[in-house]
User: Which sequence fits this backbone?
């Protein structure tokens, strides 16, 4: 167990690679209750979210979720969150480490507006079921039909007396769902979700933070504190797809200016020669000069390659560019490659 | 978890097995379990001189990278070549086939400060 933003979290249960592979082939259960869950009501909620989110969240229908960033005036990324629209409220799911910061930021910009925010992180639990077997397993366990639930959509339901919300989303690059349910019921729900035990041939097995990180990295998904920080903006983080510069939001002017002048650096994917793993902060070099730094790296369990993401100077971001990564006194050659490294064939 | 009593242990979780003035060094089963799946072991070239208490290699796992520290100084006389293709040997058999380097010690006395099996067992227990 490790301390993670004040939460005691398991890095692994049986082994990171085993849990990783189980997710890619069967189904893993991740306890993601540490993620912040902020519920907003009031007639100005939509306007507040439009103001703070980089992405257009003003036209969302009930049952829709959207991934977006929340940035400072200068474009520095405060957090990446998922906004979901319910009938009578909005839900913002933020990173555990940023929960206080985002609560403060939303409160500050809600001043004088008709918005009421309730933090339900502690009274609810959140679990993710991810992998090719996730959908059929959940359908069977909850006795529901998910065939109509599209990616980034959610629905609500009840299981006996407790209410839950089920979202078709995740952080692994696999199909699957994330469930929010009352915290008190989780102890009862876990054995059911785990297939009544921990037998070797169980379809659903638990997975920890270690596998969550290697899975998201293969899928090219950014992690706050690594690819996303207050030190740079969403465009630099290669997340321009969730930035709508045709609307006004906090950070829009800074990002418009950046776009007009041209970015000076950007996150890229790298494939290293050999088996060594690049770690956050390792220098990226070209022609004997430092041109950037690694933000995340892993020896990909699925692909067998050593892969990494790095923030590098804009002249070194083209696919196929040859760079190297500094490992102490040694340099390991690396090539700029496409993100994601792993893509689910559909 | 096994802690063989034919060797000494450091608090940074290396084991030291002495044969004359040649010392074989590896990491403990406890350390291998903590590091999780080991993916790469960087070892020095044979012939390299190393100082007592210095890092002589690096151990990479899915979780983290950590240094291999040698409590003794001397000349590297062998490294476990098998680990280049099979770093998982450290997870599978940390105390035997997962050995890392052999050093011809210039001075064996730093080993006197290390733990015996009983003390190490207590240290990690």
Assistant:
């Amino acid at each position: 167990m490790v301390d993670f933003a004040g939460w005691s979290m398991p890095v692994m249960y049986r082994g990171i690679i085993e849990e990783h592979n189980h997710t890619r082939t069967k189904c893993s259960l991740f306890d993601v209750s540490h993620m912040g869950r902020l519920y907003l009501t009031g007639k100005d909620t939509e306007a507040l979210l439009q103001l703070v989110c980089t992405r257009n969240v003003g036209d969302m229908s009930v049952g829709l979720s959207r991934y977006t960033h929340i940035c400072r005036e200068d474009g520095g990324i405060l957090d990446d969150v998922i906004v979901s629209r319910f009938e009578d409220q909005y839900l913002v799911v933020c990173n555990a480490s940023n929960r206080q910061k985002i609560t403060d930021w939303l409160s500050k910009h809600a001043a004088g507006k008709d918005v009421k925010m309730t933090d339900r992180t502690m009274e609810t639990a959140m679990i993710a079921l991810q992998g090719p077997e996730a959908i059929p397993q959940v359908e069977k366990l909850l006795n529901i039909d998910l065939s109509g639930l599209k990616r980034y959509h959610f629905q609500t339901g009840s299981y006996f007396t407790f209410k839950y919300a089920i979202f078709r989303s995740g952080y692994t690059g696999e199909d699957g769902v994330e469930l929010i349910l009352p915290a008190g019921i989780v102890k009862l729900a876990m054995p059911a979700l785990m297939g009544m035990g921990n037998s070797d041939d169980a379809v659903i097995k638990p997975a920890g933070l270690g596998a969550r990180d290697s899975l998201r990295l293969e899928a090219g998904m950014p992690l706050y504190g690594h690819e996303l920080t207050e030190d740079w903006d969403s465009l630099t983080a290669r997340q321009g797809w969730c930035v709508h510069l045709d609307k006004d939001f906090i950070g829009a002017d800074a990002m418009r200016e950046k776009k007009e002048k041209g970015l000076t650096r950007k996150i890229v994917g790298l494939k290293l020669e050999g088996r060594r793993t690049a770690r956050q902060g390792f220098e990226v070099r070209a022609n004997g000069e430092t041109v950037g730094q690694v933000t995340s790296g892993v020896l990909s369990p699925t692909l067998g390659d050593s892969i990494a993401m790095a923030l590098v100077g804009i002249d070194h971001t083209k696919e196929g560019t040859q760079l190297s990564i500094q490992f102490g006194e040694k340099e390991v050659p690396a090539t700029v490659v496409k993100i994601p490294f792993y893509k689910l064939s559909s | 978890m096994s802690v063989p009593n034919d060797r000494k242990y450091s608090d940074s979780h290396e084991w030291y097995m002495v044969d004359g003035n040649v010392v074989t060094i590896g990491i403990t089963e406890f350390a291998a379990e903590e590091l999780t799946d080991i993916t790469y072991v960087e070892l020095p070239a044979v012939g390299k001189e190393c100082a007592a208490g210095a890092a002589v290699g690096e151990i990479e796992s899915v979780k983290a990278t950590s240094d291999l520290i040698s409590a003794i100084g001397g000349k590297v006389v062998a490294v476990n070549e098998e680990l280049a293709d099979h770093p998982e040997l450290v997870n599978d058999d940390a105390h035997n086939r997962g050995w890392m380097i052999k050093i011809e010690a210039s001075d064996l006395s730093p080993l006197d400060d290390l733990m015996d099996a009983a003390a190490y067992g207590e240290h990690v227990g």
User: Anything to note?
Assistant: The helical segments of chain B are 29-35, 89-92, 117-124. Chain B touches chain A through twelve residues (CB under 8 Å).
